[in-house]
Specification:
Blueprint lengths: L2 H17 L13 E9 L2 E10 L5 E10 L9 H14 L8 E5 L11 H9 L3 E5 L6 E3 L2 E4 L2 E9 L8 E9 L3 H10 L2 E2 L2 E2 L4 H25 L2
Parallel strand pairs: 1-4, 4-5
Antiparallel strand pairs: 1-2, 2-3, 5-9, 6-7, 7-8, 8-9, 10-11
Length: 227
């Protein structure tokens, strides 16, 4: 076995062991502020956290963090690549209240029941929800996602004008929240001004700002090169 395979085997064992520490029931009440975190990539990692008021749907605060790409993308090991910049940007929110974190990635909807949302939730010790745009594992039964006879997530269908192109997002427990509550919160954040969004608002904004940050810095670098 190569060193890489040995290392990945240890990481899989770590994920399986840590999955037993994930709290799958509600340890949150009176939710008002929801934080969404997402990253964009080019020559670096551009990570943004956005806090949104769940009632007014207004942005309350946002922070950003820029870092180097240190780990390649590997399916089911996303936390190795994205957790460090996410944790850094969350540290910058220390003076700003948020009740729940939405992570662009999976929670227990994962082959080892321990995706990046679980890792972030455990480390910051806050209720955390995983929201993914693609189905990593499991089978969809009605709205539930089932793996090995256990419900590990919810598939929330998004409507479009072309009904033949309906798509879904996939919600799962990260930490300190139940699946029903996680789904309910995500559903509330999918509607703004009576219109359905393509992603829960905090994640949609975090994605937008992360990509704007990436593009603006790329333009600055191009400008310097051509001076």
């Amino acid at each position: 076995m190569s060193i890489k395979k040995e290392l990945l085997a240890r990481i899989r064992e770590y994920q399986s062991r840590m999955s037993k520490r994930v709290v799958r029931y509600d340890m949150v009440s009176d939710v008002r502020y929801v934080c969404g975190v997402d990253s964009a990539y080019s020559d670096g990692v551009y990570t943004v956290a956005v806090i949104v008021d769940i009632d007014s749907k207004k942005e309350v605060y946002r922070e950003q963090y820029i870092s180097k790409v240190s780990v390649p993308y590997m399916s089911t090991y996303l936390f190795l690549r994205e957790a460090a910049p996410i944790l850094q940007v969350l540290r910058r929110l220390c003076d700003h209240r948020y009740d729940i974190i939405l992570v662009d990635g999976n929670g227990i909807l994962h082959p080892r029941l321990f995706g990046i949302a679980c890792y972030i939730g455990l480390l910051v010790d806050k209720p955390t929800i995983g929201v993914s745009k693609s189905l990593l594992c499991g089978d969809i039964v009605d709205e539930s996602i089932v793996m090995h006879g256990e419900v590990v997530g919810k598939a929330l269908r998004l409507s479009t004008k072309n009904k033949s192109k309906n798509k879904s997002i996939y919600v799962s427990i990260g930490h300190k929240i139940s699946l029903d509550t996680a789904s309910s919160i995500v559903k509330r954040l999918l509607i703004k001004d009576g219109k359905e969004l393509g992603a829960p608002l905090p994640l949609m904004l975090a994605d937008r700002y992360a990509n704007e940050l990436r593009r603006s810095l790329a333009l600055q670098q191009t400008s310097r090169i051509h001076r």
